[in-house]
Structures are given as C-alpha cells and as structure tokens.
Amino acid sequence: MGDCKHCGKKAGFLRRVHGECQAARDRGWEEMVAVVEQVAGSLSFSQTQLRLDLLDIAKGSYFDGEGINAAIAEGWHRAVGASLSDGIITQEEEARLRDFRDKFAIQNQRKTGAVLERAARDRVMLDARLSALAVTGGQTHLDSLSQAFRKLGLPPAEERRLMVQAWESAVEGSLEDGVLSLDEEAALIRYLNHFGLTVAEVDGNGAHHNMVKSAVIRELTEGIIPQRQNFSGHPFNLMKSEKLVWLFDGVDYIETKTRRERRGTSHGLSIRVARGLYYRPSTFRSQLHEWEESIHSDTGLLGVTTKHIYFHGPKKRFRVRLDKIVSFEPYNDGIGVIRDTQTAKPEIFVVGDGWFIYNLVTNVSNL
C-alpha cells in the first residue's frame, strides 16, 4: 500500500495519490496562474504581496517554492498571450511584461522573449506604415520612428527590409479606395526621402509603380495631363497637338476574325445502264457557316496619348482616334475597344493591369 505523493498519507492499494488531493492541486495551480496573469499585465504590483498571495494558495494545494516559481512563469506566459490577442503588443504592455519578467527572473522556456521581440518589431512596423501615410506629424514623427527602428537592434539589411515592407504596406492601404490622394502621395514620398530609400528598393514588388499609376489617374480626373514617364525614343509619330500620357511594353494585340466554311452533302440513285455499268445522277447542297475567333496578332508597344491609341509591333502598326471608339470593355488584364465603323469587331490589348488601362483611357478620352 503506497502513500499519497501530495499529502503523504496512505493512498490505498496500488494508488499513489488521493483523488481529492489531485483535485486540490489542480485548482491551486489554475488559481495561482490566474493571479499571476492578472498581476503581470497590471500597471503596478507589489512583488512581496504577490509572493504572499501565492504562498496562501500553495499551502492548500501541496505546492512548494519550486511549484510557485513554475506558476509565476506560466502566468507570465499567459499574460503575454493575452496581450497578443488583439494582434499587437503596445509599448506600455511590453514595458510591463518585461519589468515583471526581470523582477521574477523568469526564463524564456517557451521562447516568449522572442515573441516579445517580434511584437516590438510588429509595433514599429505598424507605426512605420501609419507614418508613411501620415499627412501630419512631419519630420518629428519620422525622427521618432527612426529611433524606434534603431531600438530593435536589427542588422542594417533587415532594418532596411522592414522599412521597405512598411512602405509597401502603406501603398497597398492607400490604394484600397482606388485613388491615391495628393496628401497620401506627399507623405509616401516624404517617408522615402527621410529613410533614403530608392525607387529600385521599393519597387521590387511593383509598389512604386502602382503608386505612380494611381497618381496618374488622379491627375486625369482633375483635368491634368500627367507627365510621369520618360518617353524618349518612342516610335510613334505624334501630332503637334497631342501628348503621350503612358507607354506600355510587351502588349498582346488580340483581333476578332470571322471564319467562313461551306459545308454540304451530296445524294442520288445508282441506275444500271448495262451489265457491270451503273450511272449515278446526284445533287449537291451546301450551306455557308460563319464563326468568330480571337486571334493573337502581334506583341508590341501601346501608347496612350491625349488623342489616340497607338500600337507598334513587328507585324501591326496603327493608331485609333479616341473619339472614333464607340465602347471600351474592361478586362482583368487589359481593355477591349470597338471602333466606330459598320464592320468593326472587338480588339483587345492585354497589358497586365486592366483597372489601370481602363481608367487611363476612359479619363483621357474625357479630357
């Protein structure tokens, strides 16, 4: 007959613990952990009073000093998790959690310290994203952000990668409503200049290009002819009264072709005219069948000017007056047009960004 490992009294045949003792221990553990979790996230606490409270709980639940320390560590880990429940730990929450950890010399057995480091980085990232879009705050706010990045203690390459990532996220957020405001564009450029980020760095995923394209649409809606690209060396023979607004490269030109085919059948009756010789008079009837196909005709440059759409490829070279286009059809990756002629069929230009070219052409045509 063994003794209970908690109370030390006889536990019964082949038993090592009383059921009521184990239940008391489980309740005591959860109670101690809950007390620590609440205290670890509070603004102020008494280290001595917390120890006394935990000792009172431990007396009735068979825990010694080592068990109390384990409960303190578990409560702190849970406090960290609770602070992360909304997705980010604020600077105040982080300071309180670090202070509690240091006072009780809690070991990062679950790598919760790394969680705090990631949380701090995420907080700086959020601040950076908001700063990149902030129309107020100016240089002072950006200087504070620079200090926050330095406090992370990251290698220079990693720090710069986070700066770029925050800027890309800011661009994505600013384009959620479709158009970049003038204030948002100014804030994004101010962020780039402050941290010395180059266009090549922030355009790895196309974020800078997207910012420029959105700004072009904004200017067109305001009646301004954008001058955002360097058009030197283009092959188009522009009229004196028109200006090139945007140039697309690698554009697929898709034409709609009508195919015709005559299909028919013949039939008749074989008539014997001599031994081994037959004559078969027959008739032939046919119908003309027509269908349309979309054909890839060429790949080349597409230029949008204030008056025309120009296309220049190895096989096809032409221009279409904007006021001679009767309809524009938006696609995910391009735009379809139908010219103002009786036999016109859809022509499609695949540029990769249907939203941009549709808004570009329709707004240019309304200038």
Describe this structure in words.
This protein has about 375 residues and is of the alpha+beta class. The chain contains eleven helices and eleven strands. The strands form three sheets. It has a seven-stranded antiparallel sheet, covered by helices on one side. A two-stranded antiparallel sheet has the order 1-2. It has a two-stranded antiparallel ribbon with strand order 4-5. Strand 4 and strand 5 form a beta hairpin. Helix 5 runs antiparallel to helix 6 and helix 5 crosses helix 7. The termini are far apart. The model has no long low-confidence stretch (mean pLDDT about 80).
- Total DSSP E strands: 11
Mean pLDDT value: 80
Determine Rg (CA atoms, Å).
38 Å
- H/E topology pattern: EEHHHHHHHHHHEEEEEEEEEH
Please list the strands of the largest sheet in the order they lie side by side. 8-7-6-3-11-10-9
Strand-pairing-aware structural class: alpha+beta
Summary?
The chain has 367 residues and is α+β, with helices and mostly antiparallel strands. 46% of the residues lie in helices and 24% in strands. Strand 9 (325-330) and strand 10 form a beta hairpin.
